[in-house]
Amino acid sequence: MMTAAAERDPFAGAAPWADRLLMKLRQRDDIDAEEEAALRSIIEPPQAYPARRVIIEEGEPLERSALLVEGLLARFKDMRDGQQQISELHVAGDFADLHSFTLKRLDHGILTLTPCRIGWVGHDALIAMFERFPHLGRLLWFSTNLDAAIHRAWTVSLGRRDAVARLAHLLCELQVRLEIVGLADPTGYPLALTQNDLANCLGLTSVHVNRVLRELRERELVTFRGGHVTIADRAGLCDLAEFSADYLFLEKRPR
Amino acid sequence: MMTAAAERDPFAGAAPWADRLLMKLRQRDDIDAEEEAALRSIIEPPQAYPARRVIIEEGEPLERSALLVEGLLARFKDMRDGQQQISELHVAGDFADLHSFTLKRLDHGILTLTPCRIGWVGHDALIAMFERFPHLGRLLWFSTNLDAAIHRAWTVSLGRRDAVARLAHLLCELQVRLEIVGLADPTGYPLALTQNDLANCLGLTSVHVNRVLRELRERELVTFRGGHVTIADRAGLCDLAEFSADYLFLEKRPR
DNA sequence: CCGCAAAACTAACCTACGGCAATCTCATTC
DNA sequence: GAATGAGATTGCCGTAGGTTAGTTTTGCGG
Q: Last residue of some domain: A118, A153, A188?
């Protein structure tokens, strides 16, 4: 069953690289077939990028946004003294820099942490789509506000949780976000990060992340080894982290 | 000169409580007279709230958003052990919880730190306005993305700056944000916060904030006393904080 | 002008995490 | 299968900031 939009665009209706984005959005609101086709049609076929490549430089003028199709991306900021802070991790299905649609440039860089596939979307195509489907505009606005909610959760972690709870909280967050897009099962998920990457997310040093990982392992809560997170005691982990998924807005509602 | 929208609504064209919001938005993009009238017309006359009142509870269903007309608001989260973390401060002219337009509830509470005046805006009125003026929709989307950029700056502070630089950075941020809405002169600004409030922003204790304020005073960079921030050496302060206003997106551009 | 509470300030001590350096593990390449 | 290098791991010690427990100052209602 093809919609009008789908017939005009040879990619629409197909474009499987938008699948995880749709899973993510449909967790929060209904999207009808016409909207789906419109959304799929504006996302260009994904391009591959190697790990550890800065794909968007801080300040660079932007006329398109990046839909992460596969891999892990980080929003990061480098300090004078060589330290780095990551302000958000992005998983498949995330629009990593939809913020640039209104900001026109970013206040931070975006970096691949693993090999990635990215489908670009032109800002002009977004404007056209929003004129026809204001509801999709609100949904993507929602998704940037969801990023802001994640930022706030990280702020709370960095400000008020100790290193153990902070790491536990991050692992809980990723568990939920990856489950939504079908990349985690209830016992854990693949996570191709180094301990140093985790340190850059958590405002710690890699040495201390190592100590904390050992503690979490010894307390039989989680194991992170060989690029895989195995959650041994989910309830215990959430409790330690004071984690609640409320800030991820998983309920389906008209937005 | 009255526009069509202004003639329909007795408050439009007047509604001076939207002045600072307009100053803030016009710093980033042009707004024509018709848009201005539409925006003014949907903001209800401000209501007064005393200091230290939670005006929005975490999770509460929301059908309107708060434009801060006067005073200081905080987005906050309380921890099990009684600690509090503030994830953003809002000054006059800020839409404090425009995020709830798409989120429908908040992942945090909103609290008055000083006596405040707030003009409420119904979400239905926003939808109607956006249908007629998509450009205003993008501008307000921009303003939620600006909040996200501020969140990221705080994340970097909390993760990678020591207490002195962290406090200095916050004081720099407020200087710029208050200047935009005409509430700071180049030498400083009124700031009716306690040292404990600052501690809750910075992930510190009030005791340590006190020590750090003394250090900043002794280094002749800033003084915070009697609810007023006096900047003695702006360049030195920015340098210490590694502060750049880039993340506040002060340039005027079509959004 | 007094009495009171909240906030500011100080000092002595304590601890979570950083800094540094050495060693270990493991995957990759020739 | 030896050589290499990135990342993981551990131990020791230093320090930024927390904790506790005060004292002092400020603002304010009566």
A: A153
**Strand ranges inside chain B, DSSP E:** 47-49, 54-56, 64-70, 73-78, 84-90, 109-112, 116-122, 188-190, 222-225, 228-231
Q: Is the pLDDT of residue A118 over 80?
A: yes
Q: Do B154 and A155 touch (CB under 8 A)?
A: yes
User: Are B126 and B188 found together in one domain?
Assistant: no
For B6-35, b where at least 16 C-beta lie within 10 A, e where not — what string? beeeebbbebebbebbbebbebbbebeeeb
Cα dihedral value B131, B136, B139, B144, nearest 10:
-60
What's the structural domain count of chain B?
Answer: 2
CATH number at residue A237: 1.10.10.10
Closest CA to A89 of A118, A70, A111, A108: A111
Average of pLDDT values for A78-87? 96
The nucleotide lying nearest A197 (C-alpha to C1') is D7
In this structure, chain B runs to a length of 255
Subset of residues 162-201 in chain B with CB less than 7 angstroms from any atom in strand D: 162-164, 166
pLDDT per residue as tens digits for the range B9-31: 444 457 899 999 999 999 999 99
Co-location of B92 and B174 in the same domain: no
Print the domain residue range for B81: 2-153
pLDDT value for B54: 96
Q: Which two tokens stand for residue B146?
A: 């600006």
Same domain for A73 and A173? no
- Whether residues A115 and A181 share a domain: the answer is no
Phi, psi of A143 (to 5 degrees): -70, -30
- Asked if residue A223 keeps its beta carbon closer than 7 A to nucleic acid strand D, the reply is no
Q: Which residues of A touch B151 (CB under 8 A)?
A: 87, 148, 151-152, 155
Q: Three-state DSSP class for A255?
A: coil
pTM over 0.90: yes
Strand C contact with A204 (CB < 7 A) = yes
Note the pLDDT of residue B15: 86
- Asked whether residue B33 falls in the same domain as residue B93, the answer is yes
